[in-house]
Amino acid sequence: MSKLLVALMAVLILASCAPQASTGPASLAVFIPGTLQGSPIYEMLDAGARKAVAEVPGAIVKTIEGGFNQAQWGEQIATLASSGEYRFIVTSNPAMPEIAAAAAKAYPNQKFLILESYSDNPSYATLAYNHRELSYLHGVLGGLLAAERKAPAVLGLIAGQEYPDMNNAIVPGFEEGLKAVSPEGKVEFRVVGNWYDAAKGAELAKGLFDQGVSVVMPISGGANQGVLTAAKASGRAVLWYDTDGYAVEPGVVFGSGRILQDKAAYELVKKALAGTLEYGKPQMVGFQEGYLDYVTDSPTFVQLVPEGPRQKFEAVLADFRSGKTQLEMPLSR
Amino acid sequence: MNRRTNPLASGIGTLVALGLALGLAVVLLAVLSPNPAGALRAFFWGPVSSGLAWGNLLNQALLLSLTGLAASLAFGAGAFNLGGEGQTYTGGLAALALTLVLPVAWGWGGILAALLAGVMAGALLGGLSGWLKVRFEADEMITTFLLSASAVPFVNAVMTGPGIGAAQSMLIQSRPAPEAFWIPGLLAPSNLHVGILVAVPIVVVFAVLVNHTPWGYRLRLMGRNRDFARYAGISTGIYALVPLGLSGGLHGLAGALGVLGTQHSLVQGFSAGWGWNGIAVALIARSNPWAVLPAAALLAFLDQAGRSVVLQGQFPFQLSALFQACILFFITARRLHGRPL
Amino acid sequence: MGVPFDLLTPLLVAALGALWSERAGILNIALEGQMLSGALAGVLTFHFTGNLTLALAVAVGFGAVTGLLLAWGTLDLGADPFIAALGLNLLLPALAGWVSFSLFGNLGVIRLTGNAAPVLLGVPLFLILALVLAGATQALLFHTPWGLRIRAAGTGPQLMISRGLDSRVLQRQALAISGALGALAGAFLALNLGAFVPGISAGKGWIALVALYLGMRKPLPVLAACLVLSWTEQASNLLQSFRDLPTGLVLGLPSLLTVVVFVATTAYRKGGRSKVNRPSFPVRKSDNRA
């Protein structure tokens, strides 16, 4: 019996030693630092990359999920790079330039397309979003809604975790937008501690509502669901940060921002495949460049937000789109 | 020698279990993967297919040996140390914090001092549970778990705070340690480094201590039958506190080595799951330090193999956990490989 | 700061699940995975049928099955109860993800329409059910012959052998009940929130074990323990309004407070050390307790 086992294993191991088929020149790996489904920002990344690949005959793309353990991503990226199979590794996360640095150094021919990040490393082509502008607009709408409800000018922001972009750009931007409407306004910041504890999200939201907060913006992944439930029960408003959320809980989500990650991914990959992509030249994009937007053409938005505040808001939005107003995104690198 | 005490016989039993587990792995891959041949190749060949792969495999096997030894020492003495993750994390913080204040000229002396700091931090945390057990008879399974659960957010707060937090980073991490205190790496860019090799002599030393000294005998007696141990005059206080302190210290060492050798800074969440993995190793090794090295190697291989399969796109990510669960189950289901209950 | 009903209900039910298993001698460490999968089972059933009773029933049934699976692994296959439960804890979320993916094409959130958490006379229904279950546990485990036998099974094999009783049947029953309660706890959690989120159990299955020992393995003290734990969590949430306190400290506070309370209650308990049934220590050779 044990001899049979040994023989079986030997056969298997020998079989797996067969040489791999070589891949064509244009091959791409989309590395998702997390899981694909349930993460709109990564779904858009994948969709945009695939769209670009589909336009180039013979190009291959493979999507690989890295899971939620940040400490493992570096190892996984290095393994992908070492295989030499992929001309480009496409990923998205502000910390990725640092995480992939060792791999980039060890495999200098490997090119990385890293969205949602900013780095001048010559192996990388990076594109960062101006979160300050996006959260500023949320702050403006939140302030207008609070004023409309005759509620105190206090907005709530519930984050999954604290991280540099959150502390340096999103929270201050949110408060700046609020202060543009109500100069005495204030943002109440809460942290869940992870991206899935919906019960805690609900409790934190309830605490905010008891304090008199009438509008809250959750950026906490799965925990957002708890915030939505609490808001529904208390009749408060929720702002949905970076995707169209009006349908998630009708009547509760009053505004939705949008990060056009699919557009960015598509364009970056297209340029890479065509050989026209510039490396080592990081880009910062916002409303003017067309990669950030606010969903105002939804009937829900029109229905929920009264005309006065809506027009004021759309005026501010128009200024951002045209480039008349611009905000600088603090870069903590 | 009967079958139970004959190490060779029990070794064969474990090998049969291993064979069954691998067989199961093959079946699962064949059935659930879109490309069975590719999946099998990725599974068996991936973890050893390059210097990088070997480096990661060895590093993980050695780290698991340390945490597995830590868990074994506790179990062997009749204690449940569920706080491995917190002890590892705290050890990493202590090591890193020390490197930030030591003069750079210390070089290797500094590295050793930092490792020692990691050991002591972990030992204090584990020992605290031991003391609570001795003094208040507080169940250490609960206290190790809770203390670890509180340590993790505290460490998170400290490592991003003033003086220690990284100013220029998008990762939630501490400042990097000065380069003089980086443990030299091996097989770059893998996670392997010179420091982790110390795991082997440590395991051997403890294997000898536990199995061939009077002290070790008393320890094992505590694990087997505490009341008898007390009748035999063994001080149950010390023999409750010391194993937990040792266990915590080894976890702390693993954390310190990870910080100084692989990441060169404290990255948030790096120790996630390390406690449980150590417990799994100890359970497979049946708390025998001699068996810790092969058990750790086995688990490391299975883990890397599973990751390799996912990384090569041959297996859906969400099923890799299912995979691991089945393997674990098979390895410990004693009836399946013929040993009496 | 009132009573945090929403935090209390799932924790209490899960702790009761832990109690049944622990009293029978096989501590159920798979509660976390059972809570998560029970949450999914409840949400899915409600999503497709809109029937709350059915949703709870499906969760209970599924949980019982997982409990029996654990029993099979531990009692029939001789697997180490710790590892078998750890294995379940790995298996169940993966299974949940697979089911979610197969049905909806995504691993993410399932949000319910309609009210899945009714309120009776101002008190949430789930809380009422949880309290009823606590009362039932007290009555069944401590005031019936069957309950006595289950607890006897938990004290060790000698008593059982001398009475000619088979501890395995009783342990199997206890584990099935334990699994059912764990899954029900998860269903309560998710249905109350009106959504399933992967990872929604967020460690409550482990906190339930803490509640069990903090509550000295008896239903009414366990209820008190769950209250204490819920209050510390609520306190931590409220403390966040003081932004000067480091977030890490505030998040770690509940666990720290719990240790203190646990040690204090252990130290002042009358009658010396209470018996704690943990999984058998995995030592080699004669780890045969039977």
- As laid out across the biggest beta sheet of chain A, the strand order is 2-1-3-4-5-11
End-to-end Cα distance of chain A, whole Å, is 61 Å
CATH architecture of chain B: Orthogonal Bundle
The CATH superfamily of the largest domain in chain A is known as Response regulator
How would a textbook summarize the main sheet of chain B?
none
Q: Give me the CATH fold name of the largest domain in chain A.
A: Rossmann fold
> Could you please say which CATH topology of chain B applies here?
ABC transporter involved in vitamin B12 uptake, BtuC
What does this structure look like?
The complex is a heterotrimer of chains A (333), B (341) and C (290). By secondary structure, chain A is α/β, with parallel strands linked by helices. Chain A has two domains: 27-130 and 262-285, Response regulator (Rossmann fold); 131-258 and 292-322, Rossmann fold. Chain A is built from twelve helices and twelve strands. In chain A, the strands form two sheets. Chain A has a six-stranded parallel β-sheet, sandwiched between helices. A six-stranded mixed β-sheet of chain A has the order 7-6-8-9-10-12, sandwiched between helices. In chain A, helix 8 (198-210) runs parallel beside helix 9. The N and C termini of chain A lie far apart (61 Å). Chain B has 341 residues and is mainly alpha-helical. Chain B has one domain: ABC transporter involved in vitamin B12 uptake, BtuC (Orthogonal Bundle). In chain B, 68% of the residues lie in helices and 0% in strands. Chain B has helices spanning 7-32, 36-45, 51-76, 84-101, 108-136, 140-159, 199-212, 214-224, 226-231, 238-263, 274-284, 289-311, 320-332. In chain B, helix 5 runs antiparallel to helix 6 and helix 5 runs antiparallel to helix 10. Chain B is globular and about 60 Å long. In chain C, 58% of the residues are buried. Chain C has a two-stranded antiparallel sheet with strand order 1-4. In chain C, strands 2-3 form a two-stranded antiparallel ribbon. Chain C has 290 residues and is mostly helical. Chain C has helices at 5-23, 31-49, 52-76, 81-104, 125-143, 145-155, 157-163, 167-193, 204-214, 219-239, 247-268; strands at 110-111, 119-120, 123-124, 195-196. Classes of the chains: A alpha/beta (333), B mainly alpha (341), C mainly alpha (290). At the B-C interface, helix 6, helix 8, helix 11 and helix 13 of B face helix 4, helix 9 and helix 11 of C.
